[in-house]
Amino acid sequence: MNNGKLEFHGSIVAIVTPFDRDGAINEKLFSENITRLMAEGAGGILVAGSTGEAWALDTAEKVRLFSLARDVMGQDALLMGGTGEIRTDRTIEASLAAKEAGVDAILLVPPYFVDRTRESVVAHFRAVSDAVNCPMVIYNHPGSTGLNIDETLLDPLADLEWVVATKESAGDFHQLCRLIAGFSDRISVLTGASSRQGAFGAMMGSPAFVSSVEPQVLGAEGIALFERGRGADSQAAVQLQKKCMLVDRIMSIGTGPANLKAAMEMVGRPGGHCRSPIIELTPQERDRVHGLLEAAGVRTVE
Q: What is the Cα–Cα distance from 239 to 264, expressed in whole angstroms?
């Protein structure tokens, strides 16, 4: 049985990290975003995920944001922190610091860029589990890591003492369904890419989303996608999912999360800037994002 088992529910929002033009973290906008999302019904907050530009943050900055998020949210709300690094020792160091800062769970990508074997990936996560003693969520994002954590690889990971969940963001709905069916009695299978498949993941029994696009553009309406998927009115769930999919088209313009941050600003939410090498959208790209939001029926303020 896994230690530190957590109850996941609803839309856990993978928040952006707002930067100023000079690259400094804008803590005011960061805090405002969390306060607003929690008031709108978010089931928790993920800090320093891929949407939060984890790659652009050093460990000290992450720890500061984890502590700030905990202060803003209070002690009862679910807080997850991204601490994955290429090196195992650095992952352990960041994870211990995150635990000390008050996160409820750490989100871990597998080592990326380096050559890996199944055995080395399992050994990496086992070392973190043994050293940190904090609930772990395995983050499957093959588009960024080049590694797909499918059933055969997740199987030994699910047996590790502190692994409590996986965030499934491969974008393969068939794989999501297989993982929900095959692993839900051992760990929680959290639906990623929820703007494209969230309602259907909820219908299949996923206990929560880890979502970024629809809650930070649509607010309470986007956060409601999980409950719609779990509800009796399947047609209402499908209609909201369609709207979220229309909004998700903004992610094909420019580079993420600059596209998401631009959309957030257009609807009056605190997006901020990105850190280099991510560049801002061009005026033409911003016009396209604005047009897609309007086409999806989203009210804009600019």
A: 22
